[in-house]
Recover the amino acids of this structure.
């Protein structure tokens, strides 16, 4: 009799237990969905925030270039043209030639600004080509000895959001080198291995104490780089020694 009662009890409890399990599973599934959706929204929000930051930096760069560089070139052109005396044929010809040279230089500078504005369009040609185009301007400066190993030129994969952020990362690193490093040699290596994109930048500048710079907020440019790397789930390692240069190693899941 007790066995029958026990069996009946088990049969009664099994559906109840199953219902409890199903409810618990559905609740966890629902919570997981909301957490996943919240993470997605947070990621999209950070991407949007980064785009806004990039736009603000781009506008500041363009404003400075227009005021300090192109504005000066056009002012010089105006002064040169105003000083022309048509009765002095030889001097007039020379000043006209100088004016044309200044105008051509202004046009070149405007084209370079246009390339900054159209970062998204540059990336459409592939992150490898975008990096190559960025470095071509650095080569033309002639200030640095460059060693470049760009293993992304024939890359078939693409990630629109990541590609733009990777390009901006490299631009910011180069900008920091130009402003602070006092380097003469820059080595840039980038390649894809499996599902990871590697970007390494080394220079022989004055270096710095990394921990001290982060504590004293003097490494804000580098902090911005680190923030963007983390945004796209990447890893970054910075090795720097005073008077011995700096090396930056970045790994990014790709695409």
């Amino acid at each position: 009799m007790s066995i029958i009662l026990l069996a009946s009890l088990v049969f009664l409890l099994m559906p109840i237990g199953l219902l409890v399990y199903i409810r618990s599973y559905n609740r966890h599934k629902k919570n997981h969905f909301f957490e996943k959706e919240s993470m997605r929204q947070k990621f999209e929000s950070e991407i949007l925030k980064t785009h806004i930051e990039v736009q603000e930096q781009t506008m500041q760069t363009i404003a400075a270039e227009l005021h300090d560089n192109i504005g000066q070139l056009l002012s010089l052109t105006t002064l040169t043209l105003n000083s022309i005396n048509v009765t002095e044929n030889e001097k007039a010809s020379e000043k006209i030639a100088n004016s044309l040279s200044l105008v051509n230089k202004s046009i070149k500078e405007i084209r370079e600004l246009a390339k900054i504005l159209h970062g998204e369009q540059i990336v459409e040609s592939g992150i490898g080509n975008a990096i190559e185009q960025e470095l071509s301007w650095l080569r033309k400066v002639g200030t640095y000895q460059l060693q470049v190993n760009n293993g992304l030129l024939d890359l078939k994969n693409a990630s629109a959001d990541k590609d733009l952020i990777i390009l901006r990362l490299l631009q910011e690193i180069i900008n920091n080198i130009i402003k602070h490093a006092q380097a003469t040699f820059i080595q840039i290596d980038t390649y894809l291995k499996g599902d990871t994109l590697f970007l390494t930048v080394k220079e022989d500048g004055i270096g710095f104490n990394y921990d001290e710079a982060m504590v004293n907020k003097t490494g804000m440019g580098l902090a911005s780089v680190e923030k963007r790397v983390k945004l796209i789930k990447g890893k970054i390692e910075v090795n720097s020694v005073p008077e011995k240069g700096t090396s930056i190693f970045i790994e990014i899941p790709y695409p």
